[in-house]
Amino acid sequence: MQPENPEPYSAPAQAIWPAAAIPGRPGAHLHATQADDADPSPGSDADARSTDEAKTPSGPEEISDAEPTYGSELLDELRGQIAQFVIPPSQEALDAITLWVAATHLQPAWQHAPRLAVVGPAKRCGKSRLLDVLTETVHEPMLTINTTPAAIFRSISEDNPPTLLVDEADTIFGPKVAEKNEETRGLLNAGHQRGRYVTRVVGNDHTPHRFATFAMAAIAGIGELPDTVMDRSVVIRMRRRAEGEKVKPFRSRRDIPALHDLRDRIAAWARPLLDEAANLEPDMPVEDRAADTWEPLVIVADLAGGRWPRLARLACARMVAAEVAAEEEHPSGARILADIRRVFHAQREVDSLSTEELLHHLRQDAEAPWAEWGRGGLTARELGRMLREFEIRPGNVRMADRTQRKGYMRNKFLDAWSRYCPTVHSVDPQAARPVNHPPFTE
Q1: Position 118 in a domain
Q2: 237 — phi, psi (to 5°)?
Q3: Are 245 and 265 in a shared domain?
Q4: Which residue among 252, 311, 326, 384 is buried most deeply as judged by most CB within 10 Å?
Q5: Does residue 337 share a domain with residue 279?
Q6: Are 278 and 356 found together in one domain?
């Protein structure tokens, strides 16, 4: 949607933006002058009422829409442009892509540079087409096709970093080539946080020189990216279009001018807000690294106002939860811990289980991968290797018949359970009943 005033937008020289949106606080994103007009005098009933509302916890769905600004119009327009060319997996993913693009125009304000991981299970899922649109809308795009890590970090300006765009990442991080590209992975990991540098010697006298690595990056590829990259990313899981889903073909000559015009208007809107963006610390619906990664997107939404503060937090909460669930399902992640916890629960929280008994129960779960793990199912050696990553090791345990066998004590799992799979999964009451299994033999 084009603004009514076609002239370039310019913010007031002393524009002051309030703190980020607070759930239950309508108008928290109002411009200072609007807030002054709308706020009641201290001590009034309305003031007390707003204070009570601020103390009431609420989820992202309950955040009231704020006063829209020119920025919210630009985000709406950008969202519509992206949706013309690709079909993201959800409305939340489309919102996240829109906010990520806008956040690239405020990179000097951020402490963390979120990656946009655009992944899909197969070809023709729209990954490269999305990168085409990003190339024409992000700040200073830098395509890294066949680009060495040295060339990349020598191209990154600390004061005005580019936006890295990596396509066909599976050719970089695939199992046959991953070892050759460890430096690229390390660069992408380091560049997620401000203040991480690469030191190299330069010149004939080999003078040590620090190169900045901080820059936002979009990375597209088939299959999963390395865990360390995914953990620093807003993850967009693309899929092939279903029958009847239509998109607009991307034609450079026709479409790039309109995208560039929109890009320039977003940059003109964002540039005067750099200091305000750097000082905002919004309430986040997630914690730890997920909060670091999503914070720039939420701040952009707070600056834009309108419906965007609500949409940003909703996308953040739902997409992070989806990735946590996916991580728990991944066998090399917390899946093994969660399944072992279910076994102990089904056995009425016994103090210990022998390795043979634990493996038997894991293989019995028809929805788990352990029966088909390797050639003959999960082995004691492989189980031990997985659990060593969580500092859990087998030992001698006493069985009900007073014999000793190699096995695992329940209390050794408690710390790992609390850290890596804190959500208690509902268990079928029938599964909690003891089951008569064939005797285990040494």
Answers
A1: yes
A2: -95, 95
A3: yes
A4: 311
A5: no
A6: no
One-letter amino acid at 195 equals G
* Domain end position, chosen among 328, 359, 393: 328
Cβ–Cβ contacts within 10 Å for residue 83, how many? 17
Number of domains making up the chain: 2
71 and 269 Cβ atoms separated by less than 8 Å: yes
φ/ψ of 212, rounded to 5, equals -70, 150
Strand ranges across the sheet with 233-237: 141-143, 163-166, 217-222, 115-120, 233-237
Determine contact, residues 185/102, Cβ cutoff 8 Å: no
Give the tens place of pLDDT for each residue, 366-404: 888 898 887 788 999 989 988 988 889 999 998 877 888
- pLDDT value of residue 176: 60
